[in-house]
Amino acid sequence: MGSWFSKKSRDPPDSFDSLMETGWCDIPWSRDTLEKPKETLRALQPKHPDVEHLRILVIGPVGAGKSSFIHSIDSIFQNKIMNASYRVATDQRSFTNTFTTYTFQDESGNRLPFVIGDVMGLENEDDSGANTEDIVNALKGHIKENYTFNSVKACSVNDPGYNSNPTLNDKVHCLVFVIPIDNFANHAKERATVLMHDNLIRKMQHIRRKARDLRIRQVIILTKVDLDCHHVTEGIRNVYRSKNIHQKAEACSKALGIPKSDIFLVCNYHNDKQLNSDKDEVLLFTLTQILNYANEFVEDRRKSMDTDITFAGRGKNSDPR
Q1: Which parts form a coiled-coil structure per UniProt (predicted)?
Q2: Stated pTM of the model
Q3: Pairing mode, if any, of strands 191-194 and 184-188?
Q4: CATH of the domain at 126
């Protein structure tokens, strides 16, 4: 005699490890080489006369892959795996303890039109890791290069590491949250849960709201995706088709309030001995979207400046009667 339970047990279990028919993000894979996307980024020009380079700030939990992302971008443009041992956290405490801005060159020594700022990693406790107000100050351009972070005391006006008069070139043009995808887990059909500590989420939400108030575009990079799905381990081109990863991206979007369209997936270089063209393509695609957002931000500032000049001119030449 059959029962509901016996019938249910004969059904195949739901699989989070399958591929969707179409991906939720379309990467224009190169057929030959990566020179075209690399050349596009080399030729990128900031859309504001006062901006020398587009400034990205990467933040996230300790061990998320911030430094590995920076190292990966460096390796792509140098066309070889660069030594990253001094950039990568090796334990649960932040390896980065000073505000550091990385510049980039291509293999010919030409400087690239963007920089990436790295800060101390976020931690669960309030008295450890990056102070959220220091990150807000960095967004505004108030943190000087090589400032040493203090988890319990934010940089203030009287601190020698405080920049009282930041220019647009000092301010952050795009904020990037870097989060490892293993901070999310699938436990139910069509749904993933968040494994991050509530206090860590609150810290990131606070920073996100401050960035929003400053009209700074924000994106999320989910790292370590190749360790999360065997389809992606076998081929990075499957990354946006993985049902497992897709559900975790949706959980991340809901937790931080950032649209899924602004969530990107990368597989950083870590223990690799040589470059991989597909991995490079995903990284370059992500970097291109980030820099486009950064350029939108500085262009908006230019338009505001032009408007102010126009109104000022009208006021000066207006009839006093």
Answers
A1: none
A2: 0.88
A3: antiparallel
A4: 3.40.50.300
